[in-house]
Amino acid sequence: MRHFLSTETATHDELTSLLDDADAFVEVLQRPIPKVPALRGKTVATLFFEASTRTKMSFEKAARALSADTMSFAPGTSSLKKGESLKDTVLTIQAMGVDLMVVRHEATGAPWRVAEWAVVPVVNAGDGAHQHPTQALLDCLTLRQHFGSLEGLRIGIVGDIRHSRVARSDIHAFAILGAEVTLIAPPTLQPLDVTGWPVAMTSSLDESLTELDAVYVLRVQAERGGASVFPSFAEYRQRFGMTAARLAVMKPDAVVLHPGPMVRGIEIDADVADSPRTLVLRQVANGVAVRMAVLFQLLGGDRHE
Amino acid sequence: MNREEDEYVPQHFLISAGSVFAAQGPIAADVRIRNGVIAEVGAGLDPGGADVIDAAGCWVGPGLVDLHVHLREPGEEHKEDVASGSAAAAAGGFTAIVAMPNTQPPIDSGHLARFVAERGRQAGRCEVIPAGCISEGRGGVRLAHLDELWAAGVRVFTDDGDTVADAGLLRRAMEYIAQLGGVVAQHAIDPGLAGAGFMHEGIVSSRLGMQGIPAEAEEVIVARDLSLVRLTGSRYHVQHLSSAGAIELVRAAKDAGLPVTAEVTPHHLMFDHEVVATTDSVYKMMPPLRTADDVAALRAALRDGTIDAVATDHAPHAAHEKDVPFEHAANGVTGLEWAVAAVLTTTDLDMATLFDRMSVRPAHIAGIGDRHGLRVTSGAPANLVVIDPTTETVPTTTLSQSTNSPYLGERLRGAVRFTMLDGRPTHGVAATHGAVAP
């Protein structure tokens, strides 16, 4: 792997190798001193052109746990405000001396442009509504820890699929690892054309629930656009909200995942969010481990240290 | 045109042994040009001291006419200016180009239109005909200075780059422009349906998670505008037609006898939305590249004449305006120099049809049929082009100031060998100071 940009083109072996390394880093993170010297002397730059807290912190924690140095870029206080182009910003930061760039950008494809301009490896930390591949890795790791394997799992992804880079990343990663994916959304939040996607699609959560091993609840993205995409939050919760009643009809070992941040009372009720069958905090913890695996593999860290 | 002000040196040329788009149809003939006009058309003409252009295996016809070019002057000369844009046009075989009015400031009054035409005369590479705005400042609210524009030579009125969305305003514009004798040209994309879309709405946009623009955004505007054509009787021209659905609307309107014409760009004939999967901003333009079915329908409609004209929508942008993520990139591609090649490569038009769609009909739409788009006959102004329809090339350079062309690096069939404006070579031979132009 030269860059890590998308799950769409990933292979079963690549994903499995990253998850296996992540398993090892989960163990590292549980040590009294949760740190290894694998990337000592390397510098990881996080370039978050779109606001983010958790993903940026997670990447920085991952880099430091591998003993890499980190540099970060925040658009609010940067030269972008003075009219500098993205390309000049990237080349300027590269010239300071970095070994890898983690890029989040509101525009689809931006990390691919950065990968063309830069000579160092690039990790996509989210581009538009397109891809967020490390999120998919941490979701896969969480499901693999719980079920042992994704092979044959039935996973329902519920909510704003149309505008979700998490969904676009998860769909491919889940399918590559052998799961069956169903997309569950109101018509205005379904993707417009899923020809060629390894998914089934429905607009009824209740009809799907009993068959699912995992429900992946997406956040209602109130900040996107402002266009009216469903009648009201109350009606959304009524049809697509993950309520205690819905959790109760699922298989006994079925679980709930959410990429965060959760909007309690809309897409997920508080008692579901706090249920032990909801793996949100495990996902967050796994996020650090999978990002360590990605940084480790891209920077050719020494496996024996 | 104040041609007498130019430093015009009469010359004597013989375009020999070409296949000539003559009055009676394609014939094998020589064409003699003297003093800016076609002096003689016939087989085996005596060179008699003329500069001879060997046109063996080539098509000789009226210089091409482009209804849709962005020259960026005044206001955005870092992208292009009238001189560089018209040089690229001459290299593409054009002798007349219609300059879109979405400059800074927009061409919404007489003195601005005169400025653009004058810059064209100074450059001397082709006749530059300014199009004028429909609305003042392209604001979509008040009518532009239509009488002034008309007096300055404007015949094509458009707010291109934006749609005239207000049906009431468009109706009044149609009534007024119909009385003048001009044509209302529409950039037909419904702003509500387009939203903040960047590409065609379909399988590729869904995969990329990119906001799309459905083909229906074009259809609803064309359908509405055709109702207004029925109401007003105005001539109406659909710019850069992109969808199979809108083609059917135009076809039905023509069958009903409405005064409707349409253009297609070479890039909509050549590419479909699958190329956008790369998120390479060279493929970003308005309207967006649509499906392979739309491309097939556009090619068929150009062949059967439902689409009247090929128009490049040559839209130069500086490198820093394109070397950004797709969604942030400026809309548009350049294409003047490779329009003929793109059309031949994608549609395989015969000579008569090619000259009809790229010269005769666009000249009539633009209101310049008295001097452009004429069959090659003695006494006609010597606005001519020599096209080699078989040579394959891979373009690597451009005369435009900008390089945002999807044709660079593409294998194309067909090349422009020679262009002549009023008897003066503008491309191919002795264009300036006796030098051989590229």
Condensed summary:
The complex is a heterodimer of chains A (305) and B (438). Chain A is α/β, with parallel strands linked by helices and 305 residues long. Chain A is 38% helix and 14% strand.
Provide the structure class of chain A: alpha/beta
Radius of gyration of chain B: 21 Å
Largest interface by Cβ-Cβ < 8 Å: A-B, 30 and 20 residues
Q: Mean pLDDT of chain B, nearest integer?
A: 95
Strand residues, percent of chain A: 5-15%
Instruction: Give the beta-strand count of chain A.
Output: 9
The secondary-structure class of chain B comes to alpha/beta
Provide the β-strand percentage band of chain B: 15-25%
Question: What quaternary form is this?
Answer: heterodimer
How would you describe the shape of chain A? Answer: globular
Report strand order across the widest sheet of chain A: 7-6-5-8-9
Largest sheet of chain A: 5 strands, parallel
Q: For the residues shown, what is the average pLDDT of chain A?
A: 93
Basic shape of chain B: globular
